[in-house]
Queue: 4 jobs
Job 1
Amino acid sequence: MTDSTGKSKYQQVLVLENMVNKLETILESFGSREKTVMHIVEMLETIVSRHSPDNNELNEIIDILVATEGLERYITTLMRYSPSSTIPGLRARVTAYDAKILKAGAGLLVVTGSHTTSASLSGIFFYLTGDPRRLIKVQNEIRGILELTNDIIHGPKLASCTYLRARVDEAMRLTSSGPSELPREVMRGGIHIQGQYYPAGTVVGTSSWCDARNQRVYGDTDVYRPERWIVDEAEGVTKEHVARLKANFNPFGAGPGHCIGNVFAMSEILIAVARTLHRLGVRRTPGSMLGAGHPSLGWGARSPQQLHLKDAYITIRHGPEVQFRKRTTGSLGE
């Protein structure tokens, strides 16, 4: 559904969220804020008064803003500069967080702040050590572009290691840090998804483990093939093909609930892998199958070329077992 300007509801929400950010900046810049704040409050109250409580379109936008904390920040900002103001119809929709919710949120932040990185590194080194030919190739790229270990920092040189990034992306595709769905409740008015209607209150979600194995997007989904992420017209990998892969690839989530530290986390992963491979030789411990799939494990976990994952909202895994030693010519993994 669109409004008279052609904007969808989602676009309207993004505009309103942007207004929240701009409002905070504007209010901070004014020397005398009272008149400005009161004008904004009056304008908002007028808009609200024109809509009846059963206006589905307005209520849906308000619900989304509450869910993304945009409305709460908007009201908090206004109240900071005009404590006496009230915003009928909106303020009542914002509920306070109790201690239970705060504790749960804090616990989730502690886990998610480290889990994605640690789970990804497990997958990266599992697939690195399971493919010596590609391991040598990525080592040569890192050592050719980055002469010294101290050169391995966030920046253009590290970003130019395209094969390293492809190996990381492919390993993260196969090693979802949160393999099950991230549940979301359908808001007032319901929603249509791919022709199917879901009423308000329905819990929906998409499993990242399943997304990463979508055959319509990736084709050979169970094959570890980093080259799929690198544009190479000679090999039939076009820009459009890679763009489609990236559009489906959301290791840090998507939408309002995506990981706000995703850029830092990816940089942390790339630096950790690059420095390790620059300084050390690495190989899978001879004879070790720790973490690998096995026919006895059942559907989805039979392949020894796959890192076996267990879903506990976060990813539970054991392995791989690898060996490192200081880099010398002909060292482990070279």
Job 2
Amino acid sequence: MQTVTVSEKGQVVIPVQIRRRLGIAPGCQLNFSLEGQVIHVEIKRQMADFDVALATREAARDRS
């Protein structure tokens, strides 16, 4: 676990090792949610990030 400091504007810097591992780059959007005292952060994925062929196959399988 790494500790970061919140700026006066409420900003934090995501450690470089985490950004690299998750492919977070400038312009990426993140979703925040709160569960009790825990903040969850998820990368907002665009449809282009997914394997469309796989999604199509899974949808067809779910309908049958």
Job 3
Amino acid sequence: MRFVRKHSHVGLLPDPCADDEDMDDGYVEKRNEKEWDIEFTELELASMLVYNILKQRRSIAKELAAVSYSWKPRFQYLVSVIRVFTRRLKEKLDEEAKKGDELDMKNSKLLTVANNVGFIANCFLVNICDLHAKISPSWIQRKRRISSGEIIAPHKRRRS
């Protein structure tokens, strides 16, 4: 992983301006799977917090939109990196399913987390001043929808 230092601080992501044709292959290589899980989970939490704050405080969103030249390139790069990561992870899960292997719940959850982060970052890029999508964090258990075929009619009372 190559980080470029342009300013006195080091960013979380590699420099989006660097001409790295191998980003698709090189950046997503994982040295430590646990590290990726932690980073994506933390990034999801931070993204959800910022998203909800900006949804409630439109004035902050408008101020951020005014200086979008400074943060938009990084978010565009983040969306690209996550897109590559999720595509590879989905392909891996699909291959496991084709082989008949047991579904790796850890990778499945990581895919959900990465999709949430990518979706939120994309919402910021599209229109940070009009955030209206409802996003469920990965840590909240979703209730399974009951399909119409599974609905059981209540028992009728017998007349005595």
Job 4
Amino acid sequence: MFRIKRLYTFVLETFLPLLLATYSVCLFILLMQFVFMHIDTMVGKGVGLGVLAQLFFYAALTFTPMALPLSILLGSLMTFGNLGEHLELLAMKASGISLLRIMKPLIYSVLVISAISFYFQNEMVPRAQTKMWTIMLSLRQKSPELEIPEGSFYKEIPGYNVYVRHKDKKGGMLRKMMIYDYSDGFENAKVIVADSGKLNMMDDKQHLTLTLHSGTSFQNLNTRRTRNVTEKIPYSRETFMLRKILIYFPSDFEMADESIMGSRETGKNMHELTTYIDSVQYEQDSLAIQTAELFKKQVYAQTFKGERYYTASVADAKNDSLFAQGLDAYYEQLNIDKQIHYMQQAKSRSERVLSEYNYSSIQQSDSQKQLLLHSIQFEKRFSLALSCLLFFFIGAPLGAIIRKGGLGLPAVLSVVLYLLYYTVDTFGTKMAKQDVWPVSEGVWLSSILLGVLGIFFTYQALNDSAMLNPDDWKIAIQKGWAKFNKKHKSHK
């Protein structure tokens, strides 16, 4: 009994440091991917390190459930690969300890990690995602840092395009300036040319002061477009020695309203997702009933001009003279004016019904899209937590089979398996979003794949199969190559 407990401690002491190290590496990679995708939003806004630190902190919390499965896969593969490479796994099996018994403490550990991952996704990640995307929205809305380049137009000032040929870096003076002023609209645009100028931020951090020296402004006084190139177009020209222009340019960082991002499916916990899904399903059912009643009243009741045709039975309708005569014959007996009148009336009713149907379809489509997104997010909370356990049952047996530790072959296999999982998961989620597949099938497709691979690798490891052993493959290839060379020489 003591031997087994010491064995469990030994396996845990081998696995947990590797898990922590691989988790740090995976999280860093995901953060770098996030930075590269949104580098244009973060750079050039003049925000402090505190805002960026908050952004990276909430991003790390958001990406933790995604980093855990890959880190468990890589950590378990390296753990059992190291044990196999140093013949420690062979010694344990020789002592009569099965592979599942060796994996037992790690299975319990991964179960705990999966439960923590589920709780983390449900309680922490929605708030972290709301905070993270709120900061990102605030960064997108913030005015960029004022840095006018030389020799090209600067378009980041709302309502103005500024061109500067040369900048005096010591005094901050701008030389040979050309300014397109369309702050009053493109139809009232002005062109200002100045010998020099200076751009300063006011103390309120909300306005810019553009001071221009020795310049001329031009404005087209004819806002009407003309195609006659020979027609004279009136314009105004004004020469000045000094002109000051006040430009609204807020530079303070203001946090956006969190409710904007909190209302999305990623910002809700399980209870909120369930409540939203139930309410949308109820609204869809109510909308379908209302649409059916509306069409029934507008199409049938108004077409036959009377409540008795709307409620009449089939037998009463057959005895009616209008039905007995036939609509085509009745229509041909009318004069041309009434025929045109009825045709126009039928056309207008058809267009009205079609318009109402299209509007109802748009409402139904929007609500169905939100229902699918919330349902996918609900299922993802379970599938992502379960993937931690499934990846362990792939990594641990595979490490015992290949018997290679370190970051070489285990890292390559982990990346290949995770890319396979990610590709299948992305495909299934896309099918679910497009309502091609049911949500449960699309979301759980990748988990089913992991389960099949886990069962296969575990079976191979428990039976000490040589089918996946790289050393056996190497020996088999060498023998085959030797036979080929021997046969080739004999033919010569």
